[in-house]
Fold:
Amino acid sequence: MTSPANVQATFVATLVDEWARAGVTDAVVCPGSRSTPLALALAADGRLRLHVHHDERAAAFMALGIGLASGRPAVVLTTSGTAAVELHPAVVEASMAAVPMLVCTADRPPELRSVGAPQTIDQDHLYGHAVRSFAEAGLADDGNRLAWRPLAARAVAEAMGAVPGPVHLNLPFREPLVGEAGELPAGRPGDAPWHLPARPAGAAEPDAALVALLGASRGLIVAGSWVGDADGVTALAEATGWPVLADPRSGCRRPSAWTVAAFDALLRDEGFAAGHRPEVVVRLGSPPASGVLSKWLAATGARQVAVDRHGVVYDPERTASALVHARPDAWCRTMAAAVGGNADPAWLADWQDAEKAAQAAFDEVLAGHGESTEPGVARTLVAQLAPGSTLVVGSSMPVRDLEWYGRPRNFVRVLSNRGANGIDGVVSTAVGVALASDGPVAALVGDVSFLHDANALLGLAGRGLDLTVVVVDNRGGGIFSFLPQAAALSPERFELLFGTPHDVDLPGLAAAHGLPTITVHAADGLVPALNVAAAAPGTHVVVVRTDRATNVTVHDELHAAVSRALPR
Ligand SMILES: Cc1ncc(C[n+]2csc(CCOP(=O)(O)OP(=O)(O)O)c2C)c(N)n1
Ligand SMILES: [Mg+2]
Structure:
């Protein structure tokens, strides 16, 4: 008779074997006793890379980053109790951003539940509707061994389903927790995944009504989140003669005759905004952060088509007249082949001229600032990255500054947690992205975001990553200076509740974790700092000091300069 501890060990070894066969490559494990059986099984299986993290909240964002960069779910494992609750923010982000994740929480066996046993909470459906599925695994029972592989395979299949996302497995373990795995139940023949992930069948026959709509001469393509192959989008731009307003995250912000990067600044100019209303708009993926763009699009009354690879509805202004579930690149190619050319060359030329004028105006204004500016940091950083780099950009002003002022370029991938727009877990996400990326990774984050995720730095120096974290240190939440609250409240009240300055020594914090740090004050200091970081292996922190009040002025200057530069 096999001992219960050995049955338990065989059960978890089966889960890990099945996950490895389904293509899972990484597991993030947090310390704790109750999770021992699965922690040992993950460590024992040579096919998975193991990453250990003290803080479950940061660990879950690391797993999110791995899923975001690779499209494959990473396992995250915690012990029972509040440890499991710490995963919740990343689970919510994974759900809303359609990132696959295998969330494993250890639990007490049934006899220790609801009797006041230590570190025991109700973990049933702990993450509510934020997971694609919840499974209570139950105690390992040799009589149920045929159910073990399907349990593991189904978790991966659901995490990578029609809309990818997190899957929660609650795993009760009974003491003794250390056992020896015996023979695993037989796997399926061959190596193919058992459950093939569901995917849209690709662009089918082009819809005649949409083809007709795309015959408009004054149209726009708004590329928000990942589109797949950007050449597919270019094909549609070429066929329609429409500009592509390209969010850096989309992969479409490349130098081309159709790319418009400075759309936010252009649309802040009333004359330009009024004179360039489109008849039809194609929106790919989730929308850019620019509120100016989304409000203007809604106000134009244009017919709008929203395309998303998972069929997720991104329509906060409720203006889409058609929602298409298709991979944007494939759909664009299909439509490009079907539309008749009604292009108005003047329409595209106008947008191109405006884009050129805006980019030149940005250069001119930023060159006039000796001290570092936040738009300047975003613009310089994206321009400096080595080909093949990934840039993870934090919520608040970093994602906006990059979107509004980043110049088009090739061979850089931009990722961001835009599912729930939290400022939490940004650095941990970047760590996960770096773990799952071949090329170098940089992160652009605000100081409050950096502090919020300070535990991302735990163990970071030893993870062997090529990662540069650029912290824009404006001593508080700079985004709030752009809100009506900034003008409506007394400076004291505004600072207390919104500006929220702090006195943390950020380089000292990084140094406490053994990370080399460079502090930058002057506009010409960032490039050398990035070069130093790029020249040496490992993780570097670059702290750029800026000023919140000056930042508002710099944004105003940039927008005024664009207005002046626009052809009339
Ligand atoms: C988890 C979470 N808490 C609070 C917020 C609200 N919030 C949005 S921006 C911001 C300030 C961020 O400051 P910082 O990271 O320094 O960026 P900056 O605004 O200075 O660019 C806060 C608190 C949020 N989005 N997410
Ligand atoms: Mg800040």
Q: What stands out?
A: The pocket of thiamine diphosphate (ligand 1) is lined by residues 395-397, 421-424, 446-449, 474, 477-479 (CB under 6 Å). DSSP finds 22 helices and 18 strands in the chain.
